[in-house]
Amino acid sequence: MLYWSLVFLVVALIAAIFGFSGIAAASAGVARVLFGLFLILFVASFVFQLLQA
């Protein structure tokens, strides 16, 4: 999932360089959502791992 957030971030950066504002905004939005989801899942798994120890 982190891989996909990085892919969309790269697509957003490339689109921003070439001036495709709609594509850049959409890709940045998807990258932000995927990164947030990854971060929440990471924290949840970290907490659950601490509780099991």
Walk me through the structure.
- This protein is an all-alpha fold and 53 residues long.
- The protein has one domain (2-52).
- The chain contains two helices and no strands.
- It has helices at residues 2-18, 21-52.
- Helix 1 packs antiparallel against helix 2.
- It starts with a helix and ends with a helix.
- The mean pLDDT is 83.
List keywords for this structure.
53 residues; 0% strand; 2 helices; mainly alpha; rod-shaped
Gross morphology: rod-shaped
What level of helicity do the residues show?
over 70%
Radius of gyration: 15 Å
* Element pattern in H and E: HH
How many domains make up the 3D coordinates? Answer: 1
Overall residue-averaged pLDDT value: 83
Give a topology summary.
Elements: H1 2-18, H2 21-52
Report a brief summary of the structure.
The chain is mainly α and 53 residues long. It contains 2 helices and no strands.
